Amino acid sequence: MRTIAIDAMGGDNAPEAIVEAVLKAKDEMPETKFLLFGDKEQLRNLIPADRINDQLGVVATTEVIADEDEPVKAIRRKKDSSMVVAANFVKEGKADALLSLGNTGALLACGIFIIGRIKGITRPGLMPTLPVQNSDDGFNMVDVGANAKSKPEYLLQWAEMASYYAEKIRGIQTPRIMLLNNGSESDKGDEVHQAAYELLKDSNLNFQGNIEGNELLLGKADVVVTDGFTGNAVLKNIEGTSSVILHLLKDSLLNGGVMTKLGALMVKGSLSSLKSKFDTAKYGGAVLLGVNAPVVKTHGRSNERPIYFTLKQVDKMIKENLVQDFKDEFATK
Prior knowledge:
The structure is a single chain. By secondary structure, the protein is of the alpha/beta class. It contains twelve helices and twelve strands. It has helices spanning 16-28, 40-46, 71-77, 82-91, 104-115, 152-168, 191-201, 228-255, 258-266, 268-277, 304-319, 322-331; strands at 2-7, 32-38, 56-60, 97-100, 125-127, 129-132, 135-142, 176-180, 206-211, 223-225, 286-289, 295-297. Helix 7 (191-201) links the parallel strand 8 and strand 9 (206-211). The longest helix is centred in the C-terminal third of the chain and has 28 residues, at 228-255. The two termini are 32 Å apart.
């Protein structure tokens, strides 16, 4: 039976939303065991007694890593936190994967320092799946913040792992790989990006060249590789811009005159379709590529729905032996 270790105390809506998602996923994933780490009394009060069995368990912990905690210090000092105890279960082989909505930096530290890097991987990278305008498949972008500084060889390894993920987990045949840069020409960018371009071009990947920031959501790439600093800034920009546009649109429609409201009623179906296309919940969480087990981060503000999809994502990663394939591949390099 596959086992997912879940930090049940991380995130704005923990532990209620996490328990709701687990109870929903449990019935659809009979071959998967869910271990919830956190305050035993809180969790037991949320879980009906008849639902706790061989497929669902609670591991009592006494500490929580807060968002404001310094990541590395937190995982060293809060040994009995829900996140650290869950990570140690994965390290010790008592669970196959780790999921958290909590402190991103602390989760990355757990992945790197507790669960450990895959032999041959220089630096793990953080990779979400993002929407595009012309497809429901979306695209992967890596790295979005696990590394403040990057080297060309890091970007190549991230591209290789992300390409395999896109093929194995998302079902994309021969994924198109592109390098985020400040121009489409091969000589654009700083020395790191120019060198990364050459490495990607000479690899066995389906490398399609550079892509600029204004093209990311057009569906030109299945995987976009970038340095962690740029990736994080771009990700936050996409999230922030989307939020502002949706807020302004909703405000205009609700507070406009009668004609505006009639118009809104007429285009309601189209707006629902637009909302569905840019619904990131269905993609699951961001994956820390390059560590010895699946480690996945879901947005801290998530409700039950994106957590449910992330559980399905993690389960598929375990089922498809994704990390073992990475180990086999990079052990020979």
